[in-house]
Amino acid sequence: MGVTRRDLLRAGGAGLAAGVAVPAGWSAAGAAVPDLPPVPALAPSTLARDTGFWEAVAGQYDATRAVVHLENGNWGMMARPVLEDYRRHQDRVNRETSYYTRREFGRDAREVVRRVAALLGAGEDEIALTRGATEALLTLIAGYHRLGPGDAVLYADLDYDSMQAGLESLRRRRGVEVVRIDLPEPATHQGLIDTYERALAANPRVRLMLLTHLSHRTGLVLPVAEIVSMARARGVDVIVDAAHSLGQVPFDAAGLGADFVGYNLHKWIGAPLGVGVMYIRRDRLDAIEPHMGEPEGAQGIRARIHTGTTDFATLLAVPAAIDFHQRIGTPAIAARLRHLRDLWAETLRGSRGIEILTPKDPRLAAGITSFRLAGKLSAEENAAVARQLLERSGIFTVHRTGVAKGACVRVTPALFTREEDIRKLTAALRLLAGG
């Protein structure tokens, strides 16, 4: 039998033994990234406009210039140093196969767990590596066993489709009622808190609630900490979807205040595709039942997830992705993405024929933002808008459905996006809107 994900996850369970060496080919935390200049000692908001620095950062990505790529929310491109590190690990795993995985991988996996826990501000016993946030979140939803007939669960229109389906499945799995709400548009900070408070007041049987920190549909950032605190006061547990916020918004596990969280590392941290994290606060572990694939009596967070043989090279490249990300820093990255977003969204806000769905309030927005052309609410109309942007202007975006007030088109810049790309988008949208 090959090394399984269970072997990996358990390898991190006891923490990193003192003196464990970092495997060859890995860079130490904070090590210099080749060809990337030192980060200027500027406030993030000022650094965000430093064209020379961000040109150097963009040069670390082998991004296609065949199109203006503004659909980076699906998954993130690896920077060149990360890609090279991934290839080295892939070559080694392919060359040595189980000779490596059975003898040395457990030690190396503990270093991956240590680095990810430090990134999140969490304990090593509070995280388990997964194939993505979806797997982590569905595991939390299915494993939460404090529900029964007479209880209710709650989600919103902007939550991810798979997580909505997961909560809907609890109707038949646990015999609960499912409550769905629509978030306000336009949204305000207090208005979002009030929306959830009203929903819980109107549905006192709710015992579990899903919150999406940063919506994949519109880019709306929820005041998660405030809503979690309010829900906890009512005896409601919260599962937080942080798939898009990790690396795009500065925060840590403690700052969210949630007991159960799913994260992605292959979106805004820039790890290879296929790696995420499940977080369970250590004193809440008993709320999530062990996975059915684990032997009876299995303990710890890693007994809550079981996915079989892993992609070893993907996991081994995670520290290189963290190194690259931390070399620039989440505050600087967040400011840059917000700057790129504001260049088009705030320039066009209030323009005739264009609706900007994400508020101007910096607490509620990050890099992702969606728009609608006036009167175009259907999936077909918004798919046509995205197609027109690509065919007429060479700009790649994606339409999104599921928003209560109607479908939209999502714009997602990346670290390799240049200001000239955003100016091209602005001009193209003005033409489409007839302005």
TrEMBL record:
Q: Which Pfam families match?
A: Aminotran_5 (PF00266)
Q: Does the keyword rRNA-binding apply?
A: no
Q: Name one GO molecular function term.
A: transaminase activity
Every Aminotransferase class V domain range: 84-424
Q: Which UniProt keywords apply?
A: Aminotransferase, Pyridoxal phosphate, Transferase
Domain of life assignment: Bacteria
Instruction: Give a yes or no for keyword Oxidoreductase in this entry.
Output: no
Q: Point out the signal peptide segment.
A: none
Name of the protein this chain belongs to:
Aminotransferase class V-fold PLP-dependent enzyme
